[in-house]
Design goal:
The structure is a homotrimer. By secondary structure, chain A is of the alpha+beta class. In chain A, 25% of the residues lie in helices and 39% in strands. Chain A has one domain: Jelly Rolls (Sandwich). Chains in contact: A-B, A-C, B-C.
Chain lengths: 138, 138, 138
Amino acid sequence: MDQNSQTLSLRTPGAGLVDITSEVTAIVSEAGIANGMATLFIRHTSASLTIQENADPDVLSDLKDFFERIAPFTGPYRHSTEGPDDMPAHIKSALTATSLSIPIVSGRMVLGTWQGIYVFEHRTRPHDRDIIVHVMGQ
Amino acid sequence: MDQNSQTLSLRTPGAGLVDITSEVTAIVSEAGIANGMATLFIRHTSASLTIQENADPDVLSDLKDFFERIAPFTGPYRHSTEGPDDMPAHIKSALTATSLSIPIVSGRMVLGTWQGIYVFEHRTRPHDRDIIVHVMGQ
Amino acid sequence: MDQNSQTLSLRTPGAGLVDITSEVTAIVSEAGIANGMATLFIRHTSASLTIQENADPDVLSDLKDFFERIAPFTGPYRHSTEGPDDMPAHIKSALTATSLSIPIVSGRMVLGTWQGIYVFEHRTRPHDRDIIVHVMGQ
């Protein structure tokens, strides 16, 4: 049983979903694990992880809009010192995933045909984000 | 340290929660792992996983209704080519879990007394769904 | 590859978020694992886990309020025999996490600077809650 941790760093362009499937696939491939588990962990509380449809980009826009409707900038919120987009960002993070686990079979993550892995940026402005990609297996 | 991956395939009867606790328990039991981790991953973006109360079936109906209220068929959504239930299904998937990790102690998953494992089908019509059940341990 | 499972038990003071970061850090530290994975699993369906900002306590109050707005005590719900706070508690659990996986690098969980690990109690009254902390690695 082997394991390996790498940090995937990226700068988001502001609120919305960023596809990181190919970057994670490359890390899993380099780890040389035939069977095991890939675990992703995002080190932030105003951006999160989600697995979503990778075919129609409208799905990503609709998702972003839905979360803006459900957790509007207008609140009401107590926490406002970091701007009107910060508390909604924490809520959206709580509603989605901070960690994801994806089994590896025959050297590949078992993602379905229509599944992509996304960083979901909830802040309005661009941010630097770090995701730990941990691979364990044989 | 041993590991094993199996695919649990089922056909859902349409929108709602399907209890897969006994199927997952059987896979964990057959793997012969005394202590370790069971990880479930669903290979879809319009159905998801959740751990919920297994006692009162009204809880499952109320859950389904809540998610229909929060992500109604009426949107507004851009993505509509796959039917009015498809974009709400992606939203409901983002709000629940694509992967779940359940420790195994003394040969059994550490589920609480009232916890069942469910596939949450978000599409209106029946669908074939695949869940990867990965077991790792000693 | 070594592993270890411990139960972290606590009594919540009623609805709200309880910081368990130091307790989990102590369990990971005692396990003596340099590199690997910590997985948390809560054995309940009316309390859940979340990773949130640990700096401004207003964030935790705003989070609690948001979930009360989105899943109000007034429903409508079929399931009401356990009190008006029970069905909302199941919904809030489905919307947040039952399990969390946090990589361990150089003996420490890779939590970001502003990340704390919380038990999110959704019932109004105090409850006894058990979280399984599983550590695996080398």
